[in-house]
Amino acid sequence: MISISHKTKQFLVLLIKLLIVGGAFYFIYNQLANNDKLDWQQFIEIFNKNKSISGVGFILLLSVLNRYFEILKWKNLASPIHPISTLESTKQVLAALTAGVFTPNGVGEYAGKALYFDKKDAKQVVFLNLICNGIQMVLTVIFGFFGLFYFNYKYQVIPNQTVFYILLGFISLFIVLFSIKKITIKGYSIEKLIKKINAIPKGIHRRNILLGCFRYIVFSHQYYFLFLGFDVDLPYLTLMAAVSSVYFLASSLPSFQFLEFAIKGSVALFFLGILGVNEWIIIFVSTLMWFLNVVIPVVIGSIYVLNFKSSLITGTET
User: Fold this and answer.
1) Within-domain flag for 22
2) What is the pTM of this model?
3) 303-313 pLDDT, tens per residue?
């Protein structure tokens, strides 16, 4: 086996840190600088017209709450391994977000969190992070279904018969999965997964679901209030149905974190375009949501990545 010196390991760790942070910043800059659909002049005009310190503060508060509930979720779920403080959970969540920003569906986030724990706990950390993200996906699907059905009822985007077949397809898939839950593939089965989920204390699951609901309410309403700030005057239920539909369909598509606003923006163009919302407003709101809830946390998370202890990666003391 080839032996690597301590200094070489330190250099490799530093290189990895710089690549993660540099890559994150490059992709962020590239998306903001080369998006020709962003009309900054119109944005400045509307901002000057409707500018309000309290309004800006409220939108920023929603971004803080969005990430804060995610931090509390991870603090709650990490407790079966060992209790962590809110500050430690903040470091892990933001550093992992930075590490996963340019990986498919944020896969790098799982590895980022695992590095903060002992190697023997790595699989458990990945599983708990899957539970953390999974409940958010489930809530997005549930709210999205209701929103999509309401939106379709009002505007008949797709025939009701098609909606029925889609719902029937999901129910059938659910039944099939549970009917074959004992079938094992490479040592894994749905039955084993359910047992592993049930092994987690119910109190942790309840808090996870509650915090997930709070987080969904926060980021979906941030979208809603941003549209209000851009003078979009639509009934509350109609606009929220469109927002929940956008999140539902956009989250179903494989993507990278740094392309999140482009995916959501494209889906939003379809739904909100039906409502007569100006295209540039839809693009701008989607970009602002991405900037407030991904870019700013990634910038903060990059500090934690650069301060990452190399001992977490190399198994040596610095």
Assistant:
1) no
2) 0.80
3) 888 777 654 44
Spans in the chain with pLDDT lower than 70: 1-51, 102, 104-106, 177-190, 253-263, 309-318
Q: Where are the alpha helices (DSSP H) in the chain?
A: 6-33, 40-50, 53-78, 86-99, 108-114, 122-155, 160-179, 190-198, 202-229, 236-251, 260-274, 279-290, 296-306, 311-314
| Interatomic CA distance for residues 158 and 162, integer angstroms | 7
Question: Rounded CA gap, 66 and 59, in Å?
Answer: 11
In a domain? residue 299: yes
Query: What's the total number of domains in the chain?
Result: 1
As a whole-number percent, the residues of the chain with pLDDT over 90 amount to: 24
In a domain, 26, yes or no: no
Residue with tokens 């987080």: 215
Could you tell me if 229 and 59 are in contact, meaning their C-beta atoms sit under 8 angstroms apart? Answer: yes
Q: What is the pLDDT of residues 115-144, one digit of tens each?
A: 888 888 888 998 998 898 889 988 998 899
What residue numbers bound the domain in which 144 lies? 50-310
